[in-house]
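Task: sequence in, structure out. Protein: M48 family metallopeptidase.
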Amino acid sequence: MTFRLRALRALVLLVGFYLLGAVLLAAMAGLDWLLVTRLATERAAWLEGGVLTVTVLLAAAIVRGMVAALRAGRLRPVPDAVAVTPQDQPELWELVRAAAEVTGERPPDELLLVADVNAGVAERSRLLGLIPGRRRMLLGLPLLAGLTVPRLRAVLAHEFGHFGNGDTRLGGIAMRGRTAVLHTVEAFDRGGTQYHVAVGRLYAAYARMFLNASQSVARQQELAADRVAARHAGRDATAAALRALPVLGAAHSHYLDTYAALGGPVGALPPEGEVHGGFRRMLAARTDEQLAALCAGRRRPRPHRYDSHPPTAERVALIEQLPGDSRTDGGSDGGTGEPFALALLRDPESVYAALEACTLAPEAARLPRLSWDELVLARAVADAEGWSRPLQTAVVRAVRVAERAAGRETDREARGTADPVADGELPELEEVLDAFDRGLLWNNVGERMPKPPQAGRLTGASARNFVRPRIFDGLAGLVHLRLIAEGHATPDIAWSGRPGLALPETWEREMDDALDAAVADTPDTAPLRALLAGSRRVPA
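Result:
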């Protein structure tokens, strides 16, 4: 079957999906008419009333589904986006209009910048997209920060390619119909009554038939849009953009988890505009290999059953089979000299600030702002206190037991070994090391470290090996707090690595070995005490 025939079949099935509700309503109206005018009897009045009630409720559910189908083409408000006009960002609009022109399509009526690694064109469809409507483009700022201009040009041309491709216009209609069908089925799922569920199952069955029939059409549309992008931006730039998108997605997720959320535990935010704007700093500090490693370490999400996108490797291979051209692939700024697309924006700092203002929840927007270094330091202190508190608590309780056994109880030490430990009772680093030297580490302290119930049955070496990393972390937390207090640890945002503390060279070189010795089966605190003594001799 040719592509045109497959697209025509999908279009017929799509029309049938919209007619399904009308057919069902007509059938129920006919049934009700027969009940009232032909089959009405006094004996069966209760049955007729029940049938009429059920048909009315089913009709209400169907009408709701038909309304949802009609509303599927509407452009809904996008509160978490920044609208930019041609007067605000003329260079960016020029690039967008050029991409629309090369596909023979109208440029968007509005351009919205969003915080996702995403781009897309949506249209207020009428008659399945046969009648043009208002058009909107969503464009992610992370794409501008991570793609060069030629690569962004390829992405834009691809998105407009879904609406063009003259000879495959039926396929474009089918693709927009898939979105409307899924929207309608979801509306039935949210119906909330058994009648919505019952009708929704019928619609879902028809939807599966339509989606299966249009799957190959949708995939061909994606490949056709890739070819449009290659004609407009160049073969190499299009292939490079396809490879870059999953890498950017993984890098952006890493940024959100590692940097943007850095102040969460301490109730603070980065400087204004840096919640999203810091992503460009991370990209600038990392090599292509470092960014690719972020993607390589992530499990790829399982594709949706009805995903219209062929595998990226397949799309890249097909693009690379096209004839070559002299246009650059838009390599990174430090390579071929191509600027990143963020250079198209005028005053990007204000754009990032505006996007941040509309994406942050009101309670988050009221949090205090700290510089990146202040944020790293505050987080380091909070983490160190969190690591060290369980160890300090265990040491206090272990000392209570030891003092009771030695008959040297005081009023404070006579408290129960499981009683809460006040902040004023928490031992300093040297007191913890003293407890280790007294032999309390594995006899008492280790037993009082928090552990999950399933680990409570462990004994001997197995128990020690389970809690040893937690004791190591607790001791490291106390060391960090000491070095911060003495001014020997400085915050390091580490855009190319992980944010944390920069320690003196001696500590960076010898700290782990000293901590390992202190938490060994036979604890040796001398190396750690030597490091502490050396740090006190260094002027702050």
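The mean pLDDT is 82.
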